[in-house]
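Here's a chain:
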Amino acid sequence: MRSGLSTHPLEGMTQFNGSWVYQQSISAVCIQDWPRERMLVQVLDDSNDTTVQALTKAEVNRWQHRGVHIVFRHRLIRTGYKARNLKSAMSCDYVNDYEFVAIFYADFQPVPDFLKKAILHFKIVCCELDYILHSFGSDQLFFSSVVNIRG
């Protein structure tokens, strides 16, 4: 495993019809104090509102033009809510290029040094998403989970 800022984190942000938060949430995830070439942002959109989808895509495009490695994923069949969207996104081939995954619910905006604090101070932090969701009954609790996807 790499150490320090050479680690490659993937940040996932889930949302559903988040017209009131999409800009600040995407911004907060994109401005992490981490080398841009070493991180990927996945915007995982389950919105059924086409206006929100279009606005979110446009925001993703703006950050792409600023040099952020960011992708927009929208599911056509919304089953299993945000946790299922996350599971679907984790099956993408490019996910294997990233050592850590930080998941954020759209209503939560991480502070700019979140990745530094989470990754540099904790070599391996594992969190079983299904356990959290089952035990606490809310997908909002996975906003700050950091998962080591290599181990």
